[in-house]
Each structure stands twice: as C-alpha cells, then as structure tokens.
Amino acid sequence: MLRLDKIIWNEYKTKSYPPRINEPSEAMDDPEQIRSYVAAYEWGGPSSALQLHHLRNLSRMIKPGDTILDLACGPGPLLLELAVLYPECHFIGADLSPNMLQHLEEEARARGLSNVSILCEDIRTLPSLSETKVDLIITTSALHHVPTEDGLRQVFHRMATLLREGGGFYIFDFGLLKSPKTREILVNEVARLAQPITVQDYDVSLQAAYPIPTVVSLAEQELPKPFTTEVCSIADIFYFIRTGVRSEPSARALAYIDKRWKDLSLTLKGEHIMLRTLRKTI
C-alpha cells in the first residue's frame, strides 16, 4: 500500500514544482512498449483500480446512441471496455501512433466489435472531424504527452468545437509532483505489478505531467462550462476534469462493474477506494 504519510510530508516540504521534462516522443510506437502498456491495463494489472474508476464514472455519462471520441486513446484499453458495454454507441479512437491504433483495430475485430473506428491524427487539430460533432469526449492518462502549454490549450479548444450541444467530457491525467521522493514512491508501487519497461514509462510520464493549476487554468479558458475539477486531496497525484451526470448506469454496465470489483485483489480494492475517497473538488 502507498505510504500516504511520506507522500504528504514530501510534498509539504517541497515548495515549488520542478521543470517538467517532455516525453521523448508524443507517440508510442515501439512494439515492446506497446505490449507492456497493454499488459498494464489487463485486469489484475497495475491500472485495474483506475480502469474500474473510469468505468464507474463514465457509466453515468454515456447515453444510448452517443458518438464518443477517445483522444490519445493508445491501444484503446478503456475504449474497448466501453464499446462492449455500449454496443449502440459509436466510438472513435484518435491517436498519433499507427502501431497503437493497429492494436486497437485488431483487438476490436477480435472481439467482434463493429462500433469502433480509428483516426491517426494530431488531437490538437483532428482535421478529419471538421464537419463532425460528438456527444462525449474522453482522454485519460494522455495529456502529459502534449509537449507545450499552447498545445494543451489547442486540445481543449478543439474539444470545445467538437462537442454537440448537451455533450460532455471526461479528462484524467497525472499532475506534476513537487518532490522526486514522492515520484519514487509511486513508481515503486507500480513496479509491484508492471513490467520494467512500463515502470520506466510511468516514471517518465510523471516528469512530463503538467502542474495541475496550469491545466485547470487552460481548461477554464477553453472548455465549455459548467464542469467539475477534482484532485487528489493529499498531493498533486492526479486530476479529473469532467462535466456532470448525463444518464443512469445501464444494467449491463452495473453488472460488469460489480463483477470487476469482486475480482480485484485486496490491494487493488484498496487503491480503488483511495481513488474514490482521497479527492477534493477545487
């Protein structure tokens, strides 16, 4: 389990943010990295608690017949889960990595999904969607790949132009930590379940994260309101920026979420509970 006392103390002692260090590349194309990334999102892996949390939240945001855009979707671990649960919705996975999208396309085909399409484009512009409106935009664990604050502003602006009236959005990512000791604690926690290459990628991602105040400021300037911002209550570990409830969870989604919860290990259940409780609205 995470040493919350050490995290709180480390972040309290460190008064300023370090310079963020960009990811080596905006797109992950290395086959070994992709395989490791996919494994991290398998149920029982290090991302299970977070994945379940996303499913809970999104079960109240998806309506039948929605068109849903997943920005920087990677190999689509969340998109694929949702596409199975909501066969009446259309899902678009957008990413810069052809190899990531190839995995998504192959996996969708293997699962017999006909409601998934892919788009290999820059999420700051998405030119192929110039005449398209969507009902819900998702982006999870991805915005730290955008190399500049201006680029992040462009993403938020493009989201605003894509949303249909009454649509919503759901954003999650890591925040930039102040203390390298806190980063070490989080990386070591992931290392219990993840492959070494994913552990290294996670460490790099934490250093590429944006300070949460920066993200929130840009969101307030560019995204349609109202929306809610929730952050970890003990340190800048994560943030959620999302619009409100749009629907009641379907019976299919509730049954699946309950099954996945029951299948989690005690440790992962503890992480899931922390995600749901150690947060505050700002």
TrEMBL record:
Pfam families: Methyltransf_31 (PF13847). Residues 63-175 form the Methyltransferase domain. Keywords: Methyltransferase, Transferase. SUPFAM superfamilies: S-adenosyl-L-methionine-dependent methyltransferases. The keyword Methyltransferase applies. InterPro entries: Methyltranfer_dom, SAM-dependent_MTases_sf. GO terms for biological process: methylation. It comes from the Bacteria. GO terms for molecular function: methyltransferase activity. This is Class I SAM-dependent methyltransferase. It comes from Noviherbaspirillum pedocola.
